[in-house]
Amino acid sequence: MSQDYVTQKTTEALDACGGNARDAALLLQTWCDSDEVLRSRLVAPVLKNLCLLAVQRVAAKTRAVAQPNTALPASEKALLQAIGNKNAPTMSSTRRSAVPPPRGSARHHQAVSTLAMAFKARRP
Fold first, then answer.
1. pTM of the prediction?
2. Cα(23)–Cα(58) distance, rounded to whole angstroms?
3. Over the stretch 27-51, which tens digit does the pLDDT of each residue have?
């Protein structure tokens, strides 16, 4: 029910602006200045997220100002040391020397050469 009023006013704004979404949004914003019911119903679905965002911003600034040089916990230090260790295993490799790929067949060499020549021929 509460969103019906918002939908009605949005439709009116679109009609008043000839379907121009940007102008309709500006008109709706202007109406919100004088219509408290429209404003409250329009903002209600996102009010919780807006409040959380405001708290996060202030909390982040407060933590940054209050504790500029805090020491990392031991678990984070250990994690950072493990990441920086050159002998530590990684997800992408085993840090062993790579074996070169096997040689391609004569047919493969001919196909690659043909492609390379065709590419060179196309370039000015």
1. 0.45
2. 33
3. 999 999 999 999 999 998 899 999 9
